[in-house]
Amino acid sequence: MSYINAFLVGGAICAIGQILIDKTKLTPARILVLFVVTGVLLTALGIYQKLVDFAGAGATIPLTGFGYSLAKGVFNEVDQTGLMGALTGGFKASAAGLGAVIFFGYIMSVVSKPKAKR
Amino acid sequence: MGVIMADKHIGKQTVLFKSPPSIKATASIVGPKEGQGTLKQYFDYITPDELWGEESWEKAESKLVRETLTKVLQKAGMSNSQIEYVLAGDLLNQCIAANYGLRDTDIPFFGLFGACSTMAESMSLGSMLIDGGFADNVICITSSHFCSAERQFRFPLELGSPRTPTSQWTVTGSGAVILSSEQIGPYIKYVTTGKINDLGIKDINNMGAAMAPAAADTILTHFSDTGLTPDYYDLIVTGDLGRVGKKICLDLLNMNGIDIENRYDDCGVMIFDTKQQDVHAGGSGCGCSATVFAGYIYKEMMKGNLKRVLFVATGALMSPVSTQQKESIPGIAHAVSIHRSLD
Lengths: 118, 343
What we know:
Distance between the termini of chain B: 38 Å
Strand order of the largest sheet of chain B: 1-2-10-15-14-11-12
Number of strands of chain B: 15
Radius of gyration of chain A: 16 Å
Order of helices and strands of chain B: EEEEHEHEHEHEEEHEHEHEHEHE
Low-confidence stretches of chain A: none
Number of domains of chain B: 2
Oligomer: heterodimer
CATH class of the largest domain in chain B: Alpha Beta
Radius of gyration of chain B: 18 Å
Shape of chain B: globular
Mean pLDDT of chain B: 94
Low-confidence stretches of chain B: none
Order of helices and strands of chain A: HHHHHH
C-alpha cells in the first residue's frame, strides 16, 4: 500500500510540474524554485508532514520534499541553538543530499555526452 | 535642392533591379532530423549526427558552413578566387559559425545579423552588389544548429530542460547560393527590405506570433510598391513562422484585403513532417529558410514547377538579455522576388 501511495503522490506532484510547463510561460528553473518554496511553506503550515507520513518517498523525493527538509532542518536547529539556526539549519539538514548531488552531477557531466532529441 | 539618384528604388521599401542577378548554383547540408523530414531528397548531404565529428556544437555548425560553401562552389564549377564577396551570418553571439566557418576561404567577407531572416537579407544585399556593378559573383550563406541555438537562447542541452508545445525546433543546416551577373536565371528581380516591427509579443516560446506582423507588413509593402498581386507568384513562402505564425500572417493579410492562402507556405512547416516528428510548432533558424530555398525551392524552379516565387525570410531580433529585461520581441522580414525567366 505504501508503494501505491508513493507512486500516486509523487506522480501527482510531477504532473503539476508538467501542467506548468505546458500551460504557463514559467521556465523549468522557475518551476523548480516554486516547488522548493512551496515545500517550505507547506511544511511551515504543518501540511507537508502529513503528506510525507502518507506517501513517504513520493513526498520527499520531488523537489517540494527538498523544501520540506530545508524547513525541518531550520526548525530543529533553531530549537537547539537559537536564531542562528535560521541560517545554518537548512544547510545542515540537506548537506548530505547537496554533496551527493554535486558529486554525482559532476561525474555524470564528465562521463556523458549530450545529444539532440530524436 | 537634392539630386535624386536612387532610380532603382520604387515605392517605400523596394528595389527593382535593372540588371537582375541570377542564381547560378545552390547547396544545402542538413542534420539527421531534417534528413528525415518531408524535403529530405532535396538536400545535398545529410550529416550522420549533430556533432559531425567535431568537439562542440559550435564547431559542428562552422563545419556545416564551410562544407556548404565548398559544395556550392563545386556545383558551380568555380573556385574561391572567382567570388568577390561572401555575405554570411548565423544566430550565435558575434556570428562565430560564419566567422570560423569561412575563416580560411580568402573571400572578402561581410558578416550579417538578421536572425532567421539572414538568408533573404544576404540575398538582398548580394543582389544589390551585383546590380550596382560592384561584383560579378557573390555567395550568400547562412546556418543554424539546434544544439548551439539552445545554448545561445534557452538552456544548454546538458540541463535536460523540457520544451513547451509552442516552441519551434531550430533547424540544423546551412544553405548557400551563388549570385552572378551572368544572365542565366533564375533571376532576382525585386527585393523589398523590411522594417523592424514590434507589436509587443514577449513570449520567446511563441516567436511565430512575434514575427508574423513583420512578414505581413513586408508582403503588403511589396505588393503596394510594385503594383503586383498575389496571383503573380506561384509560391509565397515565409521563413519560419511555424504553424502558429503562419495562421496569424494569413489573418493579418486578409484584414488588409490581401489573400494569399492558396499559394502560401512556410519553410518551418515544410521542412519537418509535423505529424511524425516531435517538433512542436515547426522548424526555425537561419538554416531553415536557407536550406528550404537552396534545396526545395531552387530545384523546383529549375524543374519548371515554380516560375515565380516570393521568398520572405523572417527574423526575431531579440537576445537572451533583452528577454531577461522584459523587452518584447521585434520582428523583421525581407522579401526576395525570384523569377525563372524575365519575360
